[in-house]
Amino acid sequence: MLKENKKTLIITSIVTLLPIIIGVVLWKRLPDVMVTHFGMDSTGNGSSSKAFAVFVFPVILLALHMLVAYITAHDPKKQNISAKMFTLVLWIVPVLSVVLSAVIYSYNLGGKVDVTLVAELLISLILIVAGNYMPKARQNYTIGIRLPWTLANEENWDRTHRMAGWLWMIGGIVMAVLALCGVLAPVWMIVIFAVIVLIPLFYSLWLHVSKSL
Questions:
Q1: What are the extents of the domains in the chain?
Q2: Which of 70, 97, 162, 193 is the most buried (most CB within 10 A)?
Q3: How many helices and strands (H and E) does the chain possess?
Q4: What are 158-179's pLDDT values in tens digits?
Q5: pLDDT at 66
């Protein structure tokens, strides 16, 4: 799988490291100590050296990117992971790397960045995209709702992921609307995640139990 997607892996790896180039260009304008962690109110509450933020942070994300690619490519049921699904997996970390670095650089250059809104919209987008692909996912040990009963029964897996796909997309849309309206409090995020995680879980369990009776 990695060999067939070698070009995509190279491109996504370059994109993951792209913030290093941008950081070097902005080097003289960036402060020696950079804010790299933010609270829910978008204010900085953690810092790192400029060298770490520019060079080490993207390299850590590259290592994570390679680990995710390796684990996915060596799934025991890798034949069930479609090319589109694997491509989606390969782009998750690069997008995070670019967005997070853009936020960090902009904030440390004095820009007015609503970090919380960016994070909320990014999470919403991930839920929507993942929800769209979820019904198309076939049984595997890396991507999806991997429970003993979903992995043991293909029908259970398919029905669970069809429901979860809709819930994730709806949850992502609701989260994005609340974020844009400025009313997405942490409690609402917890409620949304609880709904999109627990309902498919109990639904798949119900399918398993009802089939066993």
A1: 1-112, 114-213
A2: 97
A3: 8, 2
A4: 999 999 999 999 999 999 999 9
A5: 97
Quick one: tokens of 78?
Answer: 């890798």
Name the H helices within 134-153.
148-152
Would you state the pLDDT for residue 43? Answer: 86
pTM to 2 decimals?
A: 0.90
Beta bridge partners of 48: 34
In the chain, the amino acid numbered 158 is D
Please, which contacts does 204-210 make with residues 24 or more away whose CB atoms are closer than 8 Å? Answer: 204/145, 204/147, 204/149, 204/150, 204/156, 204/159, 204/160, 205/147, 205/149, 207/149, 207/153, 207/155, 207/156, 207/159, 207/160, 208/149, 208/153, 208/156
Query: Strand, helix or coil at 137?
Result: coil
